[in-house]
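Thread: quick sanity check before group meeting

JM: Hey all, I'm pulling together slides for Thursday and realized we never actually wrote out the predicted structure for the chain we discussed last week. Dropping the sequence here so it's in one place. If anyone has concerns about the input, flag it before I start.
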Amino acid sequence: MRKKRKSAFSRRGFLKGLGAGTGVLSTGVLAEQETDAAPATPVQGPGAVAITLDINGRPHKVNVEPRTTLCDTLRNHLDLTGAKRVCDRGTCGACTVIIGGKVMYSCTVLAIEAQGKKIQTIEGLAQPGKLHPVSQAFWDNDAQQCGYCTPGFVMAAKGFLDHHPNPTYEEVKKGLGGNLCRCGTYVGVRKAVLQAAKEMQGGRNA
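JM (edit): ok, ran it. Output follows.
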């Protein structure tokens, strides 16, 4: 009677070989991925870092944490309190400033992101002994009550007129739609912007 010969190929051997091959393959793939990965960028923080901000034509050096907003930096580190921290969610416009020629909510911009850009706040509008035409128009038209939202409105109006020097009433209404006034002085605000437009650029509406 013939004895059965053991096969050189066994299930156990197959599994061992499969495991070893998978390990080698995985190692190769991971190594390739690590080689192709982009070099890591330097991480700032979490502690305070030194930055320089160009505000109202002057450089301001300040140490802030990378998570600090421009609004908090202006108010808490530079004592520029015109921009008001109200909603802190970019919905009310009380913290409005002009950054690089654009109207922006300072509560939505990190201070470190504003480096290298020209920042204008309401503190930088007036000339010695003379109000800016927008601020003067707000005064003339009684365009404020409690006044808490007024700095944001003035900056939004100034930025709007920089790009729309000859607006209509409806254009002003739409252009300042991102700023809220809980006292409801919208009519006075819009009249003030039209007056400022006339004085600044020869606008067609008083």
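AS: nice. The CA atoms of residues 90 and 181 lie 14 Å apart. The longest strand covers residues 49-55.
JM: adding both to the slides.
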